[in-house]
Structures are given as structure tokens and as C-alpha cells.
Design brief:
Distance between the termini: 20 Å
Helix content: 25-40%
Strand content: 35-45%
Radius of gyration: 20 Å
Structural class: alpha+beta
């Protein structure tokens, strides 16, 4: 049996659920022929600290067990190095794992980490912060902020809080006035949101929100110039029926670098689902093939 692989789980250490998850993960790796060194983190900061410690050790693979936020935190440490990222998809959506065809079942994901092959994928970066999926301004960060406030103040569950937060954000429509510098050109836009993806996203049909490649060395940029709340609902319907790109109030671009200037000196930015307050202008870039990831054979 090989040396134990570091497995970082983003959970509140000490609860019965944590012990159950740890035992399940440990048994999954043992069945695949490898011992797991389970390390529990109670916050994103602890995930990063544990990943840094693990990266300084002898293991060639560092495993992130959790959702996309946990994967992104570990990836931020491993990007640019030779240590490979292993992914245990234990979150709600697991977009990064799905796009790389990593199994959602813990046992199969553990087998992939033990027996899989290593590929290189791109990561995005904004003002030095790494993202593996996407970053956004405007509507989504406002929704997340209001959702979190409701969960804390009113004790609402995640999904009811998200639904109310979405209605609140649409009701209090506050478009962004932006200056974007792309490929040497400067454009001005008034839009309710800006979505920046690590590589191109499928924006229409049943596979909306997925990516077929993570190694094209590009960022995708999506805006809705001039759109108001009702327009956004119409855009969502058009996307479902595969007619989004024909909409006059939808814009899609691709680039390798992007600069965004906003009013004021700071902006609320979502980075792989986590909210940060960043100094402006925002400087986005793609880092081609910066991250090694273990994927199925």
C-alpha cells in the first residue's frame, strides 16, 4: 500500500457528521489501495493553510474534499507548481469535477485519484486571486450577500434564502457602469452583471453552465447590456430554448486578459462562489495549463 495521500475536508471539525464523512472517505481510499490522511478545515483560510502544508510534503497529489470553493482554495495553492490536485466532489454543484468527468460517488472519485491520469488545465486570476470556474460582478454577488444575511439573521435555509435574495436583487435593480479594456480596445457598458469564465461556458440548452474544455487558454465574458429585471427573465427563457445568442441584450466575448474599471475604488466580486471586496480596476487574466489535476483514465 502506498504512502497516505493528504485529503483536506472543509467541514466543522468534531461533529458526528464530520466523523462519518471522514470514515467514509478513509474507507473509500483504503478500498482503492491507498491510505488517506484526513485533515479537517473549518474555514476557507484553514483549507489554504492545510494545502500549503501538504504541498510542502512528499505527496505528489493533494486532495480537496468539498464543493467548488474548497477545490478553488486548494487549486490556488497548487497552481503553477508540480503537485497535482485530486478532487472528491462533496459539494452541492461540483461544477469543476463535472466538467472534468470526475465521478460524483466518493468511492469512484477515490479510485480516480489513485488510478487516474494527470492533465493540465487553465485557471483564471483576478487581482492575484485564482479561480477554477468563474468570477462575477453585479447581480450574483448581491444575491449571495443578501442570502447570507438572511441565513444569519432569520435562520432561513440555504435555498429559501437564495430564492428571497434573488427576488430582492431583481427588485432593487442596480446596473453597473463599467469600462472594459479587452485586446487593446476600450468599451463602455451598463449591465446588471458581468460573468467571467475560465474557458467558454455553454450558455444555451440542457447543458447550460457546463464547459467542454478547460485548456483552451482563454477567458469567456458574458454581459447583458441595458437589460432590466424582466429582460433577465426573458434571457433565461431564451437560454433554455437555445436562442440566447440571438438576443440583442446579450453579449459574449473571449479574451486572455481583461481590465474592468468601476465607479469607486472597490468592488464586490464573486470568485468561485465566494465573495471578496477587491480594489479596482479589476485585472483578469488566464493562466494556461497552470494546474495539474487527476482525472479518470
Amino acid at each position: 500500500m502506498r504512502a497516505p495521500v493528504p485529503v483536506i475536508l472543509n467541514r466543522s471539525s468534531g461533529s458526528p457528521e464530520d466523523r462519518d464523512a471522514s470514515d467514509r472517505v478513509r474507507e473509500a481510499f483504503r478500498s482503492a489501495g491507498m491510505e488517506a490522511d484526513i485533515q479537517l478545515a473549518a474555514s476557507g483560510e484553514e483549507v489554504v493553510a492545510l494545502a500549503r502544508r501538504a504541498a510542502s510534503g512528499g505527496s505528489e497529489v493533494i486532495v480537496a474534499g468539498g464543493g467548488d470553493g474548497t477545490v478553488s482554495s486548494v487549486a490556488s495553492v497548487l497552481s503553477g507548481g508540480e503537485k497535482a490536485l485530486g478532487v472528491l466532489p462533496l459539494g452541492t454543484f461540483n461544477h469543476f469535477a463535472k466538467d472534468l468527468k470526475i465521478p460524483s460517488e466518493t468511492e469512484k472519485a477515490a479510485s480516480t485519484i489513485v488510478e487516474g491520469r494527470t492533465v493540465r488545465v487553465d485557471v483564471g486570476e483576478v487581482n492575484g486571486k485564482v479561480f477554477v470556474n468563474n468570477s462575477s460582478l453585479g447581480l450574483y454577488p448581491r444575491i449571495v450577500k443578501h442570502r447570507d444575511e438572511q441565513q444569519v439573521r432569520l435562520g432561513r435555509g440555504k435555498w429559501p434564502a437564495f430564492a428571497w435574495a434573488t427576488l430582492h436583487a431583481l427588485h432593487r435593480h442596480a446596473p453597473l457602469d463599467l469600462v472594459l479594456s479587452i485586446d487593446g480596445h476600450e468599451i463602455r457598458r451598463r449591465t446588471p452583471f458581468v460573468f467571467i469564465g475560465n474557458n467558454a461556458y455553454e450558455m444555451e440548452g440542457f447543458n447550460i453552465g457546463s464547459r467542454d474544455r478547460l485548456d483552451r487558454g482563454e477567458l469567456s465574458l458574458y454581459l447583458a447590456p441595458g437589460a432590466r429585471p424582466l429582460d433577465l427573465v426573458v434571457l433565461a427563457i431564451r437560454a433554455f430554448f437555445g436562442r440566447l445568442r440571438a438576443a440583442a441584450d446579450f453579449e459574449a466575448l473571449r479574451t486572455t486578459e481583461l481590465r474592468i474599471e468601476t465607479r469607486g475604488g472597490r468592488a464586490r466580486v464573486a470568485i468561485d462562489g465566494e465573495i471578496s471586496i477587491l480594489e479596482t480596476p479589476l485585472r483578469y487574466r488566464v493562466r494556461p495549463q497552470a494546474l495539474r489535476v487527476v482525472v479518470p483514465q
